[in-house]
Amino acid sequence: MKTIRIFLVLGIVALAFSACKPEEVFDTEEQFVRDTVLIEQYLADNNLEAEVDESGIRYIITEQGTGDNAKFGSTVLVKYTGYLLDGTTFDTNVGGADSFDFVIGQGAVVQGWDIAFKLFNKGTEATIFIPSKYGYGNVGNLFIPANSVLIFEVRVVDILGND
Asked: Which top-level group of life is the source organism from (predicted)?
C-alpha cells in the first residue's frame, strides 16, 4: 500500500512537470520592433505624423510652449491622460485642480516620461507614444497589460528648477 502511494505521488509530480512549458526567454529588442510597428500602424490609421526621438519614442507637439526645455533634475508639472492603443484610458488627472509633478531622472515615472519631457518646454501640449520597454515592459500592472504601448496626451503646466 505504501509503495502504491509513493508511485502515485511520483506519477503526479512527473505529470505536473511534464505539463510545464519551458520558460520562454523575453527579447526586449524584438518586443521594441513589434511596438514600433504597432505605433507606426496607429499613426498611419489615424493620419498622424510624429517626430521620433533617438530612443524610438514618437511624439506630436500640438501646441509649442515657451522657454527652455525641461532637463535632468527639473520638476515638471503636468496634466495628462494615458491610454492604450485600443483607446482604453488607464489614468488621467485632467479635470482635477492639481497637476502631477515629477523630477526628471529620479525614476518616479515610467522611463518614457523621463525621456520625452526633456523634449518639451512650459506650455507644450503633446501626444507621446511610448514603446513598452520604456513603459511597464513585459510585466504590466493592474491596469496595463504586459508589453503595452502607452499613449499620453500631456500639457506641461510648469517647469521648476530649470536654471
From this structure: Bacteria
